[in-house]
Structures are given as structure tokens and as C-alpha cells.
Amino acid sequence: MNTQLKANLMLLIVTMFWGSSYLFMKMGLTDVQEFNLIALRFGLAFILSGLVFHRRLIHADFKTVKYAFWQGTILFLVFASITFGVKSTSASNAGFLVSLTVVFVPLLLAVRYRKMPENRVILGVFLALTGIGFLTLKNQFMINSGDFLCILGALIYTIYIVVTGKLTKGVDSITLGVLQLGFAGAWGLLFSASLERPQLPGTADAWVSVLGLSLFCSAFGFIVQTAAQKYTTPTHTGLLFSLEPVFAAWFAFAFAGERMSIQGYAGAGLVLLSVIITQIDFKKGLRKPGFHTSNAESKLTP
């Protein structure tokens, strides 16, 4: 097996773990509260990543720590939205709605630089909005709070990606990525201590959830993605990461018995198509992914 094939296989495994994160969140929320789950998830991920990259952390300068604070703060807001959202929507819906970040990033960049979005972005936005309607609008033509919070999480994550693109210049990206996990976990602990009763999981399912989110979806995903993307192409990376909502729906179906309606499947298909279209330059092939990059600012979670 050649090096690129191994790297692609590892990225596929990472994508599968990220797809499972929505189910893990629903499992964990049956035993621990939302901010508590965020604190445990990112706190344990920070500890594990810190052990692996401890030499880098020792040499972290003030600039890196400052940037990590801002990144970690935005990351906390992202997952506060998603975690609260998952509690009142399906894991399948959450996976597809959060994947809309891929569509939002080029749209936000077009607004920021006051440029007309490319045709594929306009088409992607149209398909995404149609897909959101099919996924979330029921007989009352109202979006429930869980779906809204997942869309909000995708929007905040879009801001996180754009901000991170600036902050990673001139600092060690791996150190920055590890430290931001610690700050996100610290915010979770602060809010949990203020508004909840922080506790360790009390059931086997909750422990599986926390360990799955911390070890596999966050720490393992971050470390392996950073290493694997050095040996593969942006084309392969973009295609593999676009499978995340598909894995989310599969895990929800296989382990939680979630089933979509025909309308839901149509919406999911349109959202997935919008994600893929925004990655494609019809003249040059796949564009270099703006959602996931080769540095530590790329998607560490869900």
C-alpha cells in the first residue's frame, strides 16, 4: 500500500469519526449537561494532544497563546450551538446542517472582499437553502430550535475558519491547534460551573460518548489529519471530508434507529450536492478546500 493511499485511508477514518460525533453527543446528553459535555470533550482532548505535542507547548510564545485564546473562544461558541442543537434535532439533520459551513465559507469570503460569488457558489447556496427547507420545514413551515442552532453553529464555524486563516500566519499551527482545545474546554468548564452541576459521566453510554468525542473525534482526528494531509492531495481531502454528513446519517440509522422521511432524504441529498458543488471548479477540477486545510486550523471536530 503506497503512502498516499494510506493517508487517504486515515483521512477516511477521521471523517467517519467526525460523522459519529453527532450520535456521541446525543448519547452523552442523556447523562451530562451541555456545557459539562463540552468541558469534558475538549478538556480530555487537550490533555491527550498536549501529551503528544508537549515539546511544542513548552516553547509556545505569548502571541500563540493569545491567538489560541481567541480561536478557542470561537470554537466554544461553535460547539455550544451545535451541542444544544443536537439535543433537540436528529443526529442526521445535525450532520447535514453543520456541513453547510463548506457552502458558507466561500460566500462569506465573497462578501468580505466585495466580489461577486462564483457561479458554483451561487448554485451551491441555492441548493443548500432548498435542502435546508426540505430537512427542517415541516407542516408548520417553522424551523425548530435544534435545527436553527445547528445552522447557527455552521455560521459561527465559518467565521472561525476565516479568522483562523489569519491567526495561523507566523505561529506554530500545531501548538495553536492544541492550545485552542484547552481554551474551549476551559470555557465549557466555566459555564458549566456557573449554570450547571459539573460531574463525570454516570453511565457506560455517557462514558463511551465522552471518550469517543475526546479521543477519536477531537484528539485523534486532529493529530491524524495534520499528519495525513502532508501525503495526499487537496482533491482527495475535499472529497473524503464531504462524506462526513453521510457517515452521520449512517451512524444515526444503525445505532439510534433514526429514519428520515422522503422529504428529509431529498433535503439531505441537496445539502450534500451543494457541499460537493462548492468544492468543484468545473474548469480546473476540484478547488483547493477552504473548509479543511492542511494546517491545525482545519476541522478538529465535531
UniProtKB/TrEMBL annotation:
Keyword terms, alphabetized: Cell membrane, Membrane, Transmembrane, Transmembrane helix
Domain EamA: 6-136, 145-278
Highest taxon above the source species: Bacteria
Transmembrane segments: 7-25, 37-55, 67-86, 92-109, 121-137, 143-162, 174-194, 206-224, 236-256, 262-282
Main location: membrane
Pfam families according to UniProt: EamA
Subcellular location: Cell membrane
Record's GO cellular component terms: plasma membrane
Membrane topology: Multi-pass membrane protein
Family under the similarity heading: Belongs to the EamA transporter family.
Protein name per the record: DMT family transporter
